[in-house]
Amino acid sequence: MGVLCKVVDTVLLVVFVVYSLAIPLIDAQLVLPQTAFPDVLIRLHQSYTEEYQDYLRLEKPYFFIALVWLGLVFQWPLVLLNIYGILASKPWFNTTCLIYGASDITSMAAFLGELLGSHKASDKLLKIYSLFMGVGVLALLRGLVPQSGKGSTTGKRPASLARKKRV
């Protein structure tokens, strides 16, 4: 189980590093003025939108913009905390990973519901959003698994603090 957790942590670390850059540099273009971004990032966003035919990014429905704000204000800080938590083996990593996973799954459920229900989405677009949903599921599951190599100490006292029996 320890090896599997390390593999999952490595996958999540790579994804979180990509997200740590993509959220403020790409997703933020949907809610902040275009003048705040260099031309190269604007062209990158436009090429993604065209290649994947991401009509949500083109049409910008209100629920989509609200969830982009959720990503910027809530999920992006969790991504940064998760990167630090993985690299520094922090005991709270499970909690922040679980919270991120639950939030990501909730957002992706709304996106995928729209994509599937509207019948506007290409197969390519559905695959990319399904991949994002998979990351959320992986993060949620990783948050439920105790950190490798560390036993649970909830409700237990260290031996030096244990009460001595009176005879």
Short description:
This protein has 167 residues and is an all-alpha fold. It contains six helices and no strands.
Explain this structure to me?
The protein is mainly α and 167 residues long. The protein contains six helices and no strands. Helix 1 packs across helix 4, helix 1 packs across helix 6 and helix 4 packs antiparallel against helix 5. The chain is elongated.
Strand count, sense and barrel status of the largest sheet are: none
Taken as a percent bin, the fraction of beta residues is under 5%
Distance between the termini: 44 Å
Q: Helix count?
A: 6
| Low-confidence region ranges | none
Q: Strand-and-helix sequence, N→C?
A: HHHHHH
Q: How much helix is in the residues?
A: 55-70%
List the helices and strands and how they pair.
Layout: H1 2-25, H2 39-51, H3 55-59, H4 62-87, H5 93-118, H6 123-144
Helix pairs in contact: 1-4, 1-6, 4-5, 5-6
Characteristic key phrases:
elongated, 167 residues, 6 helices
